[in-house]
């Protein structure tokens, strides 16, 4: 187990190192002045330029520059945005929790809805309920996320007027920034009309979460359904039947665990899709998350912001993917073990 | 009354375009305390019979049978729950491939303890049950010859060798104290030492507990040392069944003869470097089944009558399905002339009586043969 953990940590560290190297090289590859790309400040005089070059060690060798880049990266001194001259670290620490909050709820809905649906469909496959499940998963899998989000807005916000159109919480409620997660912030904040604020925040959450969860649920349904169908045809299920166990016993003791084991690594593979969808949906709903922020940065050719945003998102995806991979390996006793070495 | 009585079991499977009779009027019985061997080549439908008996066939396959009874109760007509209870307590199955028949994500301990029926846990309060479960499990593992139970209990199926897994499967089968053990080729792909251990284990259980065993295998050597009666299957048809001794001494069906001849250990005076006898051709596939007697195209004595499926005929306890059986020239001729004459079969009975008497007189001789085969095996 320790060995496995060490291998995964090694993998994560190396991947992140490669990402840092790429992000370090970006200011040199972007068009324009390297110094401006790096710091986000346009030097107004030769003296300021010389001072900035001194700070960013541009007149030293590449290795010194990289070492300095690492230092600034880990000390949280990420430079300022081109367009707004705000600290990038502050901007990211406000925007990123918003995204994480969104995809957490979306993932939660997908797991809670998708996996049971897939199980029921797989157990009763080729029955009317299963046809319903398959139809639902194919339809929702085929929806483009941005279009679905626009349809939701048209129906629920514009025509029915049930749910808010954009944003995270109504501006009437002044929620102080604490953890970055709006629900948590409202719960811990000491503000008047707390319940109303919570209700309002939840209303704001519904549409973006559903738009993201729709596709992910479909994917989970398909994975789970396939997996349980495969498992129920295995020899040990027949053997369990021949031992006279009840259907319930067979399903919960032998079917469920074996069907869930291969789903976990597949879920890990869906994280990048989830993040991409979240970025699109954030833009549409003006959700103040990292995706929206990054797309704004791209529009404005805000190179320092693009560089840091790309690094943060990819480190997040890599870490999460490897964590789930590691978990799935750790709990699956039969995966990648030496079959010949038996007693 | 036999424990298991199967008469004219037909199993039609869906090949996509049409239904094919994978099993065609198969009959087999297992008495209490009897070891019945079911032999046939690969692809002759041995495992399908097992699956049909235990009810593990897909819903869209069609099973029809004149009789498929367990102690007189019709297995096909009863509810799932009744059938489940019979499988739970009275019939146990050991499958071909032990490692794939064990749940890969549970330890052996969990799986063995799960198989213990709640009725067997009688003593003590509920907090003592876990201990009792463990004791029963350990006792069973010792009984099937796994001495090192400590190291086995905590392992997962992929961590143990296949022979231990097979012993473990037998332990799981014995846990509910069944009356019939269906062993579907339990010694497949095992080397002879391990195989002998498993066979001795099964034989011992039969003697000590009167456990009825339906032993499915293509391994004639293994069967001859152990089984009391034998049923020969070819391409989904039962072609001959009877006492092992009788089948060895005087096979009535051409296929049985060819099967026995192909195993050199059964031929007492086999000269060195002589040809081994085998039938031409191979077993037909499900898509190209011949009509009538399915051995027809390969049978050395096939004639035009063989396009009709031969009826099962009996000489005492020895059943065969052939129009032109070996060793019975007169009976065969009378059959071809008058197939449905009941009088003929009585005549046949008397005419073959002599044949069986002589068989009994040289039973000493056959004992020597079987000892010899055992000697060869070890």
SSE blueprint:
The complex is a heterodimer of chains A (343) and B (378).
Chain A lengths: L1 H28 L4 H6 L6 H11 L5 H14 L12 H36 L4 H15 L2 H15 L22 H7 L5 H39 L2 H8 L4 H14 L2 H7 L1 H15 L4 H10 L3 H29 L12
Chain B lengths: L3 E11 L4 E12 L4 E5 L6 H9 L7 E3 L2 E4 L2 E2 L5 H10 L1 E4 L13 H7 L11 H18 L5 H5 L8 H13 L5 E5 L7 H18 L2 E6 L2 H5 L4 E6 L2 E7 H6 L4 H8 L51 E3 L2 E3 L8 H9 L4 H20 L1 H15 L1
Instruction: Name the strands of the widest sheet of chain B in spatial order.
Output: 7-8-9-3-10-11-13-12
Question: How confident is the prediction overall: mean pLDDT of chain B?
Answer: 77
The radius of gyration computed from the alpha-carbon positions of chain B, rounded to a whole number of angstroms, is 22 Å
CATH superfamily of the largest domain in chain A: MetI-like
- Number of distinct beta strands of chain A: 0
Largest interface: A-B, 25 and 39 residues
| Large-scale geometry of chain B | globular
Binned strand content of chain A: under 5%
Describe the largest sheet of chain A: none
Number of strands of chain B: 13
Main sheet characteristics of chain B: 8 strands, mixed
Mean pLDDT of chain A: 86
Distance separating the two termini of chain B: 37 Å
Secondary-structure-derived class of chain A = mainly alpha
The helix-and-strand class of chain B reads alpha/beta
- Give the number of domains of chain A: 2
The level 1 CATH classification of the largest domain in chain A is Mainly Alpha
Estimate the helix proportion of chain B, in percent.
25-40%
Secondary-structure element order of chain B, N to C: EEEHEEEHEHHHHEHEHEEHHEEHHH
Q: Separation of termini of chain A?
A: 20 Å
Could you state the order of secondary-structure elements of chain A as H and E? HHHHHHHHHHHHHHH
């Amino acid at each position: 187990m320790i060995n496995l953990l060490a291998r995964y940590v090694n993998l994560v560290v190396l991947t992140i190192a490669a990402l840092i190297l790429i992000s370090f090289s970006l200011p040199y590859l972007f068009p324009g002045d390297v110094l401006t790309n790096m710091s986000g400040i346009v030097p107004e005089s030769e003296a300021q330029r010389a001072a900035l070059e001194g700070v960013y060690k541009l007149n030293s060798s590449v290795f010194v520059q990289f070492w300095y880049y690492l230092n600034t990266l880990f000390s949280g001194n990420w430079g300022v945005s081109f367009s707004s001259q705000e600290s990038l670290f502050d901007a990211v620490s406000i925007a990123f929790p918003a995204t994480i909050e969104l995809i957490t709820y979306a993932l939660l809905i997908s797991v809670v809805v998708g996996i049971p649906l897939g199980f029921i469909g797989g157990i009763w496959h080729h029955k009317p309920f299963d046809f319903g499940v398959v139809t639902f998963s194919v339809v929702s899998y085929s929806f483009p996320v941005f279009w679905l989000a626009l349809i939701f807005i048209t129906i629920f916000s514009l025509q029915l007027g049930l749910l808010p159109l954009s944003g995270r919480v109504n501006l009437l409620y002044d929620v102080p920034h604490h953890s970055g997660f709006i629900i948590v912030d409202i719960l811990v904040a000491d503000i008047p009309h707390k319940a109303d604020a919570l209700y309002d925040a939840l209303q704001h959450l519904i549409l973006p979460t559903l738009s993201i969860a729709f596709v992910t649920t479909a994917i989970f349904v398909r994975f789970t359904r396939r997996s349980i169908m495969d498992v129920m045809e295995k020899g040990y299920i027949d053997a369990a039947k021949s031992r006279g166990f009840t259907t319930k016993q067979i399903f919960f003791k032998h079917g469920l665990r074996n069907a869930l084991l291969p789903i976990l690594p597949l879920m890990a593979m869906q994280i990048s899709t989830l993040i991409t969808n979240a970025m699109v949906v954030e833009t549409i709903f003006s959700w103040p998350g990292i995706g929206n922020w990054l797309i704004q940065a791209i529009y404005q050719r805000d190179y320092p912001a693009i560089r840091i945003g790309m690094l943060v998102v990819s480190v997040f995806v890599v870490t999460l993917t490897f964590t789930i991979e590691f978990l799935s390996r750790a709990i699956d006793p039969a995966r990648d073990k030496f079959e010949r070495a038996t007693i | 009354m036999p424990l298991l009585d199967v008469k004219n079991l037909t199993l039609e499977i869906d090949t996509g375009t049409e239904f094919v009779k994978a099993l065609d009027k198969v009959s087999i019985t297992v008495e209490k305390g009897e070891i019945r061997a079911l032999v046939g080549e690969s692809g002759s439908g041995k495992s399908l019979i097992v699956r049909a008996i235990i009810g593990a066939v897909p819903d869209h396959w069609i099973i029809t049978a004149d009789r498929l009874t367990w102690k007189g109760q019709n297995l096909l007509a009863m509810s799932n729950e009744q059938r489940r209870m019979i499988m739970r307590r009275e019939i146990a199955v050991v499958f071909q491939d032990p490692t794939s028949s064990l749940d890969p994500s549970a330890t052996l301990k969990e799986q063995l303890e799960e198989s213990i029926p709640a009725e067997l846990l009688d003593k003590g309060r509920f907090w003592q049950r876990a201990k009792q479960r463990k004791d029963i499990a350990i006792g069973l593992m010792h009984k099937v010859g796994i001495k090192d139970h400590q190291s086995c209990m905590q392992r997962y199926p992929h961590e143990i060798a296949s022979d231990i897994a097979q012993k473990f499967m037998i332990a799981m089968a014995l846990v509910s104290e069944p009356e019939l053990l269906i062993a579907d080729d339990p010694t497949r792909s095992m080397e002879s030492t391990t195989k002998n251990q498993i066979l001795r284990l099964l034989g011992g259980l039969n003697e000590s507990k009167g456990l009825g065993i339906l032993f499915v295998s293509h391994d004639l050597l293994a069967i001859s040392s152990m089984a009391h009666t034998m049923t020969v299957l070819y391409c989904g048809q039962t072609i001959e069944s009877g006492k092992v001794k009788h089948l060895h001494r005087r096979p009535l069906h051409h296929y049985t003869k060819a099967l026995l001849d192909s195993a050199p250990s059964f031929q007492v005076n086999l000269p060195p470097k002589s040809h081994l006898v085998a039938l031409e051709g191979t077993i037909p596939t499900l898509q190209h089944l011949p009509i009538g007697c399915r051995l027809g195209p390969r049978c050395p004595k096939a004639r035009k009558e063989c396009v009709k499926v031969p009826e099962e005929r009996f000489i005492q306890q020895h059943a065969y399905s052939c129009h032109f059986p070996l060793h019975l020239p007169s009976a065969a001729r009378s059959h071809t002339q008058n197939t449905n004459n009941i009088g003929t079969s009585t005549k046949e009975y008397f005419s073959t009586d002599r044949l069986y008497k002589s068989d009994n007189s040289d039973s000493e001789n056959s004992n020597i043969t079987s000892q010899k085969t055992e000697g060869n095996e070890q």
